[in-house]
Automatic annotation (TrEMBL):
It is found in: Cytoplasm. The keyword Nuclease does not apply. GO terms for biological process: gluconeogenesis; glucose 6-phosphate metabolic process; glycolytic process. It comes from Hydrogenophaga borbori. Pathway: Carbohydrate biosynthesis; gluconeogenesis; Carbohydrate degradation; glycolysis; D-glyceraldehyde 3-phosphate and glycerone phosphate from D-glucose: step 2/4. This is Glucose-6-phosphate isomerase. GO terms for molecular function: carbohydrate derivative binding; glucose-6-phosphate isomerase activity; monosaccharide binding. Belongs to the GPI family. Keywords: Cytoplasm, Gluconeogenesis, Glycolysis, Isomerase. Its EC number is 5.3.1.9. Gene3D superfamilies: 1.10.1390.10, Glucose-6-phosphate isomerase like protein, domain 1. The keyword Ribosomal protein does not apply. Catalyzes the reversible isomerization of glucose-6-phosphate to fructose-6-phosphate.
Length: 525
């Protein structure tokens, strides 16, 4: 498949280019089409995607589906699930999909299944023993605090999921996350903790990451400083890594080392042993539900027709917006405050995967690749940067993510939820429809402005509209739906890389800075 033609050479790409050169149909017109919302809404694994506000009509849709077929998305997908070495620059398979639990018999083979199950069982057992207080510190105290030290993929996933599932968090064991090597980041967590009851998890795929090793060394000094005897420090440490030889060299007990493998990318590692801090926080059963939700999305991605395949649709609409409507960013607005870290997580997953300028065949990219992913909590964004979205000069698409059913145990929770979802729907509609100059002037007059004022103010208060968006609804925010949501974005990123003919699974772009930091350190800073 590496000999496949580049995207610009595909007939569907050229067709899409021609369609993009035609005058755009306003979203107002499109939204007036009968049955449009029903036709462009699909559900899977507890998620519903409403794409009716994308700037697409049936011809564009057909051409996008042709592009999916001509790009051999299905064949590339199967190659990934079969464990082919699709990460070509590192000669590795990409098998985070094999980590989602489930029965033997997956396309990656039973040997990998057995490896994964054994480690998953170890992780779950350890998490439960720690929660039950049977794993203890050197002086026989149950652990009350766990500090995960890790950065990038060794931090963002479990941290994001811990926030998203905060309603399941254990009262007995608090889990903290430290990523930044600034001393304050570690200190601000440690200053309230009792060393006898604190366990550090050092999460690092490579166990060479300077920031993580700096924090880990500092944590060990803190333990010693707090009176933990030198020969007992290992009882307060856990390592999670794909390079156990390195962690062993640094004194981490192999019994307390949990493994994943080089065929799991850091930004795709939440499903592996790297999920231990999350499993400690929410319990092993909930962690397994998260995996099951991702597995449900994998099944959908593998088997649903491309036309109603959620990851494929997200990817195709993204390609239309990025490559043909020339929108360089992707805003994600989450309307559930527990999804507060979802955007930073997707930002790494998408930008580190598809922020590439070289095709698989080594030639320079001939098309725009990964967008700039940004955003955060939608409601907060409305009171901050949405001004630019509505009236600024950047054209950009939005993914609105909401939750249909909420059960926070607060007397007025229903009223809160109604406000949140009302705003989500109103924003999507306002961005799509906009408000013309004439409508704005008429509204001002209706509101009592005199003719001169209405005329003067209307240009400032009009909205161009035509901002394309997806509405993505989770039935509820639980481990299963969260797993499905994460897997959906993982597969979207995969499909876009498949279309752009780039390797989503290396990250050479982060190397140069690291190399220079090392060189400067050697040269004395
Ligand atoms: O898990 P580690 O080996 O410590 O790596 C942590 C992170 O650092 C790197 O610089 C990479 O860009 C990330 O992909 C990775 O997740």
């Amino acid at each position: 498949m590496t000999t496949m033609p580049l995207p610009v050479a595909l007939p569907a790409w050229q067709h899409l280019q021609a369609l993009a050169n035609e005058p755009p149909v306003p979203l107002r017109e499109r939204l007036a089409e009968p049955e449009r919302a029903r036709r462009l809404t699909w559900s899977a694994a507890g998620l519903t995607l409403d794409a009716s506000r994308q700037a697409i009509g049936t011809e564009i849709e057909r051409a996008l589906l042709d592009l999916a077929a001509q790009s051999q998305i299905a064949e590339q997908r199967e190659a990934m699930f079969r464990g082919e070495a699709i990460n070509t620059t590192e000669g590795r398979p990409v098998l985070h999909v094999a980590l989602r639990g489930g029965e033997a018999g997956g396309p990656w083979g039973n040997a990998i299944h057995a490896l994964v199950q054994r480690e998953l069982d170890r992780v779950c057992r350890f998490a439960e023993e720690l929660r039950a207080g049977t794993v203890r510190g050197h002086a026989g105290d149950a652990f009350t605090d766990v500090v995960n030290i890790g950065i990038g993929g060794s931090d963002l996933g479990p941290r994001m999921a811990a926030d998203a599932l905060a309603h399941l968090a254990s009262d007995a064991v608090r889990v903290h996350y430290v990523s930044n090597p600034d001393a304050w980041a570690l200190w601000s967590v440690l200053r309230g903790l009792d060393a006898k009851r604190t366990l550090f998890i050092v999460s690092s795929k490579t166990f060479t990451t300077q920031e993580t090793l700096t924090n880990a060394a500092s944590a060990r000094h803190w333990l010693a400083d707090q009176g933990v005897p030198a020969d007992a420090i290992a009882r307060h440490l856990v390592a999670i890594t794909a390079t156990p030889a390195k962690s062993a060299e640094l004194g981490y007990d192999p019994e307390r080392t949990f493994l994943f493998w080089d065929w799991v990318g850091g930004r795709y590692s939440l499903w592996s042993a790297l999920g231990l801090p999350l499993a400690i926080g929410i319990g092993a059963a909930a962690f397994r539900e998260l995996l099951a939700g991702a597995r449900a999305m994998d099944g959908h991605f593998l088997h649903a027709p491309l036309q109603e395949n959620l990851p494929v649709r997200l990817a195709l609409h993204g390609v239309w917006n990025r490559n043909f409507l020339r929108m360089p960013t992707q805003l994600i607005a989450c309307y559930a405050s527990r999804l507060v870290r979802f955007v930073p997580f997707v930002q790494q997953m998408d930008m580190e995967s598809n922020g590439k300028r070289t095709h698989l065949d080594g030639s320079e990219a001939t098309v725009d690749t990964g967008p700039i992913v940004w955003g955060g909590l939608g409601i907060d964004g409305q009171h901050a940067y949405f001004q630019l979205v509505h009236q600024g000069r950047h054209a950009l698409p939005v993914d609105f993510i909401g939750v249909l059913s909420e059960d926070t145990p607060l007397p007025l929770a229903g009223a809160h939820h109604a406000v949140v979802n009302l705003n989500l729907r109103a924003q999507a509609q306002a961005m799509a429809l906009g408000r013309t100059l004439e409508e704005t002037e008429a509204q001002l007059l209706k509101d009592g402005a005199d003719a001169e004022t209405a005329h003067a103010l209307a240009p400032h208060r009009q909205f161009p509209g035509n901002i394309p968006s997806h509405l993505l609804w989770l039935d509820r925010l639980d481990p299963g739906r969260l797993g499905a949501l994460i897997a959906l974005y993982e597969h979207k990123v995969f499909c876009q890389a498949a279309i752009w003919r780039i390797n989503a699974f290396d990250q050479w772009g982060v190397e140069l800075g690291k190399t220079m930091a090392k060189a400067m350190e050697r040269a004395g800073g």
